[in-house]
Amino acid sequence: MFLTLLVVFLGFWMYHDPHGFAVSAKALGSGSWDALSSLFTGLIRFFDQMR
User: Fold this and answer.
1) Residue 42 near residue 34 (C-beta atoms within 8 A)
2) Which domain of life does the protein's organism represent (predicted)?
């Protein structure tokens, strides 16, 4: 049920405000990429220190 509501909401948002949706998706993707890069850099440094 939740997934259906999420898909309907995202579709409604994409249809009524495509520019706002694109800007939000870009910001979310950029932030996620930065967070994952930082996480993996930290993990690599941590495991290098354990050797």
Assistant:
1) no
2) Bacteria
Q: Is residue 21 within 8 Å of 14, Cβ to Cβ?
A: yes
SS3 9: helix
Please give the DSSP secondary-structure letter assigned to residue 25.
Answer: H
Sign of torsion over alpha carbons 12, 13, 14, 19: positive
**Size of the chain, expressed as the number of residues it contains:** 51
- Contact residues for 20 (Cβ-Cβ < 8 A; gap 6+): 13
How far, in Å, CA of 41 to CA of 51, rounded? 16
pTM: 0.64
The per-residue pLDDT for range 8-30, each reduced to its tens digit, is: 999 999 999 999 999 999 999 99
